[in-house]
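The passage that follows is intended for readers who have already worked through the single-chain material. We present the inputs for a multi-component assembly, then the predicted structure in tokenized form, and finally a short commentary. You are encouraged to pause after the input and sketch how you expect the pieces to fit together before reading on.
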Amino acid sequence: MAGPDAMAELVAEAVGGSRSALARLISVAERGGEGSAALEAALLPCRGESYSIGITGAPGAGKSTLASALTTELQTAGERVALLAVDPSSPLTRGAILGDRVRLQPHLGNPEVFIRSMASRGHLGGLAMATCTARRVLEACGWPLVLIETVGVGQAELDVAGATDTVLVVLNPGWGDEMQANKAGLMEIADIFVINKADRQGLEATRRDLEAAIAANAPTRRPAIVETVATEGTGLNALREAIADHRQQTTASGEHQRRRQARAVTELRDLARARLELALEAQLAGAAGKALADAVTRRETDVDSAARRLLATLFTRSDPEQAP
Amino acid sequence: MSGKRILMAKTGLDGHWRGPTIVARALRDAGFEVIMIGMARPEEVVQACVDEDVDLVGLNIGGHIDVAVRAVTALREERPELPVFCGGVVPPHAKRKLEALGVEVYPPGSQLPDIVGAARRLTGLG
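Having made your guess, compare it with the prediction:
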């Protein structure tokens, strides 16, 4: 990738309104490595603040359709909307089918809507490794609202909670029971429960189970429940209001700020860990790693001592520019 | 990992999503990221290609050759270096017209390994 000057130039172009430059920056983020690091540095001086809304739930719950209907609703209210839609990469071939746009057809060609499909590229947790950098690119380019749609999740892929300001958990009628509603994980991260496909049978039971579970929460954490039929645009007005309420409440209570602080810790940890792993792999593949592995194989040293000596080779540099 | 991104769009008549779906599956299994956008007008194909920053475009032509030609022409203006290939029902005269625009044409009966091979070549994977 090009040097810092070229990166700053591309960022300036994107901030100036070039969609093509914006799109190329997201590709830089997706490729990761030093290009992405240079991008983060170039984004630092950029102003701009956006609010992010996460949309998560099981495969087939209607996340993409809801994202599309919510985009329409926000557009009607005069908002420009950017959407990052993540779909899974194959762990076997690294390939992916990114199909969210098929549900987002009403927004094709609309200059007030930016859509980017992202493959998870082996990252677990429901988002792609580059999703947060992509969000910062959009923020720098003046997109005030960023919707982030996760891959279809199970109970424990919860990255979206740390990455966004308001989290929508999408469920359907007939989903689970009271026991499911009280389980840890996905059910804990909702700021708003969206019961989508609300024209289907079982709506009352699902709502009742959710309400019972929420009633047992601490009074400070009582997510709203909104019913939608995204394919028909029903309930989207109520959803937009629930999001605005959540935003207003968390901003007033300081919760919003606390979350952003926690987000910084998470991102710091993730990036530091990624760099550490890379450095470790390089060291393992190099002469020092081979020598230590040989020593372990020949039983000249125990594996734990070897691991500590390997780690020590990573931490002998005091200049951060030379750090892993 | 290739990380190469291919946008698949349908121009022309609605329906017949099966062909592109089968091709998309083969490309996915070959390690490509395939972005499906469904039916789209030429200017919509162009904007999606820009926003998604793709390395290759696949058009499924549903009978309306003029729409496909307009889409390719618009793409050439916005991203001249972006390769395009297409499939679907392509009559011989249309095939010549598209090939004159630098589009590779894979009519019915084309073999999936050939299409995957073309995708690799057109995205610089050799």
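Commentary: DSSP finds 13 helices and eight strands in chain A. The interface with chain B takes residues 19-20, 23-24, 26-27, 30-31, 89-90, 93-99, 101-102, 105, 108-109, 111, 114-117, 119, 121 of chain A (CB under 8 Å). How closely did your sketch match?
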